[in-house]
Amino acid sequence: MTHLAELAESVAASLPAPNRASRNTMPWRPKRSTTARPTVSSPLRSSPRSTRPLLPMHRDFLARDLRAGDPKTELAAEVAGQSGTHQIANTMIAGSAPTVGASAAHRSRIVHPRLEPAALVALQLTGLWALNFAGVWAVKQAALPIPGNLVGMLALYALLALGVVKLAWFDLTGSFLLRHLAFFFVPITVGLMNSGPLLLAHGLAIMLVLALSAAVGILLAGFVSQVLLAKPWQRGGKS
Amino acid sequence: MTALPIAAVTGFGIVVTVGAYCISLVARKRYPSPLTTPVLFSTVIIIAILLGSGVSFGDYGPAKDIMTFLLGPATVALALPLYKNRQSFFRNIVPAGCGLLAGSLGTMVVAGLTARILGLSQVLTASIAIKSTTVPIAVEIARIVHGAPALTAIFVVITGMLGASLGPWLMNRAGITHPVSRGLALGAISHGQGTAEAVVEGQLSGAVAGAAMALGAVCTSLAGPYLVPLLAG
User: Fold this and answer.
1) Residue A98, min C-alpha distance to chain B (Å)
2) Which of A116, A167, A226, B191 has a C-alpha 20 to 30 A away from that of A122?
3) Do residues A214 and B163 make contact, with C-beta atoms less than 8 angstroms apart?
């Protein structure tokens, strides 16, 4: 079952969003698709949601995700013959790591629809943390001058692309962390309280460097990509 | 303050940080402007409170370690927007890839060279050259290239604000109109804040920006350790 379902999901994921939404005639599907829309869950996206107090928002978000794992919708998915991705996803979420065997899946079925949101977040967080730890460890072992967390990120991407793990396993916690990414580095920027004099002395030069390099970077990225998007080599061949 | 136990100071640090962050979220909603960016706004509040109550950055250290513990997992989660938006990026792999390389490396070289010309110190030059990367990764690169993580973090945030507010205007002036190009430039240079801006411009721009943010970080991490020593001297 998993193989077929994986295939079905990877195909579904590769389709553009509008097709995906229109394909689903189930009344519960569009609701879910709002959480998986292709736009970015950017850390600093100015959505009205992110400005609400932390806890109610989080709870609301969790509730929405759990609703997808409702037994009724699972049944509907089974009946529809597409062996619902949510069912698999929700079962698998409970066993955060890709190596989890049948026993964990079994256990999660028992806990499943009533699985505590806190436990769900804790498991997803453990998965993300383990990947980060693995990345940091690998970089240390190989003595490479690369950030370990970047390797963790690439590892997660590779696992997603290979279909070893599902987006839904990490989406809930990952989106929450990214939405509040700023919070996690505020304590680092507080370190500026030790470099006040330095910034005052060089403030103007620093702003100049930042503005100039940002402008050059934006123009370079924009121009190079736009010129190449026009496919000059093809036009040259035709005319 | 030294008389108080470490636990009390740590608790105080966490409460102040969480409180300041929540206030900054409200402030951004009420008065949206580059100055109410949560990072900037809450950093100013926290520093003011810490200075006012006589807590040094060293005392704040344990609280900082506790709160930044989740930064690693959060960085790993950047793979999610990259995965969700991979189609819009890889469909235009040649133009987008070349644009990304040109933008990421170009901004690094320009920042390093101008910092050098303006006579900034080695540490400042190293910290400023890698600023077009999302903060958690930039902070790690800063450690590798012997920059100052706190300085890098604030340079990254300022770059994000500059790019997100002036980038669209600049691209209008320069005739960069293709949504893929606009999203790519905003995401690659101004990471999170640029991506937020690109999402407002349109779905395609936003999707490309999300992927460009993660891939730009890959670019800078791979090139930085080799390029920055040349620039910073």
Assistant:
1) 16
2) B191
3) yes
